[in-house]
Amino acid sequence: MCLGVPGRVVEKPRAGEAMAWANVEFAGVRRRVCLACVPEAEPGDYVIVHAGIAISKIDAEEAQRVFALVKALGDNEGWSSDTRQ
Question: What is the mean pLDDT of residues 76-80?
Fold first, then answer.
């Protein structure tokens, strides 16, 4: 089983970069993530990330449901239902 975590794309790479990388925010923390599997992702979009690779796009409503579930489970340190702080 693998774990995919939702994050919000905040910055896409510059044109001409060899690999599709973006900065993705997870509960206020930004990480560099590979967008090779979802090159259509744009800033503001939510993606599911596994092992540093965005594997799919999800809509904002689905992302909010995941954040609410994590909060309900009590493992909410650092997680927010709105990652655009």
Answer: 55
**80, 28 Cβ separation under 8 angstroms:** yes
**Positions of E strands within 1-85:** 5-11, 21-26, 29-34, 46-50, 53-58
User: What's the number of domains the chain is made of?
Assistant: 1
Kindly state the tokens that stand for 24. Answer: 């993705």
Domain that holds residue 66: 5-72
**What pLDDT sits at residue 83?**
47
CATH number at residue 26: 2.30.30.140
Residue 76 one-letter amino acid: N
pLDDT digits (tens, 9 = 90+) for 18-46: 678 999 999 889 999 999 999 999 999 99
